[in-house]
User: Which sequence fits this backbone?
């Protein structure tokens, strides 16, 4: 990376003013590498998770329960991004919060590496907590590197940051997935801890290149507020401990006593959070209008992620049971499918970054609404393609690996038109009072989408077979219809957005 750094004459005092990283502030390199290693640990473990849950040598669950656990875990990771943003806004500030998060994630992966099944779920909980603390705040720090929302480099910067995410995500299944599937599941989880340790060390060494704003606690808590918050937290913790203690000791506890409440929380919390922000009297009319516009982007993203995140559960389990996982006669681990999306991201993201900037210079860049519409239509198209390998499998044959690659390709192009743009839109439209917390709200769209998947797949609630042609077709239609709905109401949304494009 050092060879890509060049001298650049920019305004003194701008973060990273002495050097640039591909034409962007130098601090982007630090955040790029931190996120790369964190995603290496996260996606490596995630590529193993559904396979470990169903494997005879793992927890040996059925596919529906494994999908529900996987979806609840993902929803919890993104749900906790909201309190992660709050913690940075009120207690430590983004920079210190990310450092704490790295330690917790590392401990979580080490816990997953322990053989007992009980510690496995404790490890998932720690990784989810740490990821929640990290996700919203590291993205906020990327936004802080730029000179306000009108900086033309901003969308491109988030796209480059996205490459860091996907570089880690690409390598992770090839290393962690291979070791986990072919050698030992728990050794694979231990390698994820090593990845997070490398990311944390790099972050601490490169922190001097970040914006000074990342050290600021925007709305620090008073001593009285800290005391009151601690008391409330301990009270709710005691209530949960007593409740689950009674359920456990009475012999009625099952996994659904944990899964269903978390699923319901994942659906209710996003609604409550957005409603609370809209009711905040401290916001002026312009800020409130932008939040109303943001609801449209949020709903679109929830539908997108509901389908997209099944690439790691429904598609992965389908590949495990019903696909020819071979290339030119050479067998490869099922977890390697999880490297298809990130390698496509790395190939296509620079093209998209260049394209948005080139069109912006000509005054022809598509609006965020058009980009979101494209993402929804493309993710819907990916599930229309999924109908073909499902039909092949229903006929008693194994589907070719290229069918799955085609699905991931369509989802990747859709992701590039929606996800990095969504990150950028969130930082542009966030009220000042909710700077870090609004990034947490963006991640709640993933929570909502994954919670719907968990609710539908849970045998005790929905019991839907997500890999059946009828339901896959229904999801595909839903995404396309949602995309056209956003397009039809684009003028209304643009008016609410004000000066944001």
Assistant:
């Amino acid at each position: 990376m050092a060879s890509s750094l060049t001298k650049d004459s920019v305004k003194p005092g701008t973060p990273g003013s002495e050097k640039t990283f591909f034409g962007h502030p130098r601090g982007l390199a630090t955040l790029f590498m931190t996120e790369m290693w964190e995603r290496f640990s996260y996606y490596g473990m995630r590529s193993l998770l559904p396979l470990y849950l169903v494997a005879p040598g793992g927890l040996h669950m059925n596919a529906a329960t494994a999908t529900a656990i996987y979806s609840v875990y993902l929803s919890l990771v993104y749900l906790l991004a909201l309190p992660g943003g709050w913690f940075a806004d009120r207690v430590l500030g983004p920079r210190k919060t990310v450092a704490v998060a790295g330690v917790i994630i590392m401990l979580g992966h080490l816990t997953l590496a322990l053989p007992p099944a009980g510690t496995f779920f404790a490890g998932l909980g720690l990784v989810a907590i740490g990821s929640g603390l990290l996700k919203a705040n590291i993205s906020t720090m990327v936004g802080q590197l730029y000179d306000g929302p009108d900086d033309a480099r901003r969308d491109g910067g988030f796209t480059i940051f996205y490459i860091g995410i996907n570089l880690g995500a690409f390598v992770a299944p090839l290393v962690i997935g291979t070791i986990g599937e072919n050698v030992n599941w728990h050794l694979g989880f231990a390698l994820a801890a090593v990845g997070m340790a490398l990311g944390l060390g790099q972050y601490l060494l490169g922190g001097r290149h970040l914006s000074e704003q990342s050290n600021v606690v925007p709305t620090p808590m008073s001593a009285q507020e800290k005391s009151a918050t601690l008391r409330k937290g301990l009270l709710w913790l005691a209530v949960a401990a007593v409740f689950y203690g009674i359920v456990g000791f009475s012999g009625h506890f099952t996994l659904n006593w944990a899964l269903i409440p978390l699923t319901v929380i994942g659906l209710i919390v996003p609604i409550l959070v957005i409603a609370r922000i809209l009711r905040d009297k401290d916001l002026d009319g312009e800020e409130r209008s932008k939040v109303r516009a943001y609801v449209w982007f949020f709903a679109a993203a929830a539908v997108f992620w509901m389908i997209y995140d099944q690439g790691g559960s429904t598609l992965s389990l389908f590949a495990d049971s019903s696909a020819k996982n071979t290339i030119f006669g050479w067998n490869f681990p099922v977890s390697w499918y999880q490297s298809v999306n990130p390698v496509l991201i790395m190939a296509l993201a620079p093209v998209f970054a260049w394209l948005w900037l080139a069109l912006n210079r000509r005054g022809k860049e598509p609006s965020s609404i058009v980009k979101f519409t494209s993402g929804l239509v493309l993710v819907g198209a990916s599930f229309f393609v999924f109908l073909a390998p499902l039909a092949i499998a229903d006929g008693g044959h194994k589907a070719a690996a290229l069918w799955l690659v085609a699905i991931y390709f369509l989802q990747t192009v859709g992701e590039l038109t929606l996800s990095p743009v969504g990150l950028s839109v969130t930082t542009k439209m966030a009220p000042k009072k909710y700077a870090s917390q609004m990034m947490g709200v963006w991640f709640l769209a993933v929570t909502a989408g994954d919670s719907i998947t968990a609710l539908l797949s849970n045998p005790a609630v929905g019991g839907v077979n997500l890999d059946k042609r009828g339901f896959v077709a229904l999801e595909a239609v839903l995404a396309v219809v949602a995309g056209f709905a956003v397009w039809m109401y684009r003028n209304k949304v643009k008016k609410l957005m004000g000066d944001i494009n």
Remarks:
- Residues 1-17 have pLDDT under 50 and may be disordered.
- The first strand starts at residue 5 and ends at 7.
- The CA atoms of residues 323 and 399 lie 5 Å apart.
